[in-house]
Amino acid sequence: xxxxxxxxxxxxxxxxxxxxxxxxxxxxxxxxxxxxxxxxxxxxxxxxxxxxxxxxxxxxxxxxxxxxxxxxxxxxxxxxxxxxxxxxxxxxxxxxxxxxxxxxxxxxxxxxxxxxxxxxxxxxxxxxxxxxxxxxxxxxxxxxxxxxxxxxxxxxxxxxxxxxxxxxxxxxxxxxxxxxxxxxx
Length: 185
Hints:
Elements: H1 9-23, H2 30-37, H3 51-77, H4 81-92, H5 95-108, H6 112-134, H7 140-156, H8 169-181
């Protein structure tokens, strides 16, 4: 490594998110991250005061990627509310972000501060869904039911172990999603 060259802060965050997705917050260890990046741990302290600051940064990055950036992106891509919901689900719960999301959900079960943050982010996601479904459904009960079912499907689809006769699991999930997105005739 040339003199004065530093491992970019973003590499530490990426390595931290990967560790978090693999093994939760206990897997986010400075020594392990340094080894995975191929550097010494000394560079870490040029960016972070310690592991708690890194963990907070990981939560910030997850929030930005899975909420703020995605909502901004889908709003720019399509004016159609159903397409925005579909696209937000595809992006938010892509395999890489979904693994991080699940790790944070598990972490939140044991850490009240993380649980509060997760609640805030889930509320932002639900508010987005309510606005989208509410733009073409008049019944507030139906809006809330569809939002809840769509959100539960997005988060829980990986936990479903059932067979879907005549369909792959992906086809069954897509069918459920399309059913939820239907506009009333």
